[in-house]
Amino acid sequence: MQALVSVCTPYARPALRYVATQDLVAGPLPQFAYQLALAGGAVEAEIRGADDVRGFLNAVFGARTPDGAAGFDVRRGPDFAVIKGGGLRRTPLLSEEELEHYVRNYTNTGMRGTVNWYRTRRLNWEEELPLARRQEREGLRVQAPTLFVAASRDDALPEGMSRGMEASFVELRREKVEGGHWILVQKSAECNRIIREFLEDILGRERGGEEKKKMGGKRESVI
For 7-10, which contacts have Cβ atoms below 8 Å and span 24 or more sequence positions? Predict the structure, then answer.
């Protein structure tokens, strides 16, 4: 791997001890309550037809009613009364074409496949446990140069969650973009610029290293 980029999502070291989502919500991460809500089965039961899917997506992408009511909150999850009430404005984060693409597909497939991810926390931990043990034993760190882009107003994954990430990387570069959880949509041009400059720097360094090797080889052949 030549380089690694993460936007909004901080790196979490594989853990030796399993911590259930319920314990995270009761402790340091109350904003993860939305994960419990998405895993609980209500989404599949409530969100069925195209109108429901459209309302749900609008809510997840930050839409509000004219009086400011939110259809989705990270500390509560989806508010189905608001979502199904038909009063949500359309999210500005998706074009009409994008929104309708997702509506068609989720209407056909249902929501279960998507929210199943929030039910796999223990499975993910079990899969990562051998790596956690090796990391503890050998002090492993991510070798690829890494860029982490934080959002200044991310309610679900606040920047503070990335505190201490440097210990897990040989090289970590940090950037911050003004915006919420969807900065890849809200500030796409700025995010693309930051990522492009990071990758250009990495590729430039690699090319420079290759040129030095070639020049070194030429000098040796002359001598």
Answer: 7/149, 7/183, 7/184, 7/191, 8/149, 8/150, 8/151, 8/154, 8/157, 8/181, 8/183, 8/184, 9/157, 10/148, 10/150, 10/157, 10/161, 10/162, 10/165
Is the pLDDT at 183 greater than 50, yes or no? yes
Task: Name the β-bridge partners of 18.
Answer: none
Q: Tokens 């309610």 identify what position?
A: 155
List CB contacts of 215: < 8 A, sequence separation 6 or more.
Answer: none
pTM of the shown model: 0.86
Q: CA-CA distance, 34 to 154, in Å (whole number)?
A: 14
pLDDT tens per residue across span 113-138 = 999 999 999 999 999 999 999 999 99
**pLDDT, averaged across the chain:** 93
Give all domains of the chain, ordered by start, each with its CATH number. Answer: 4-15+141-222 (3.40.50.1820), 21-118 (no CATH)
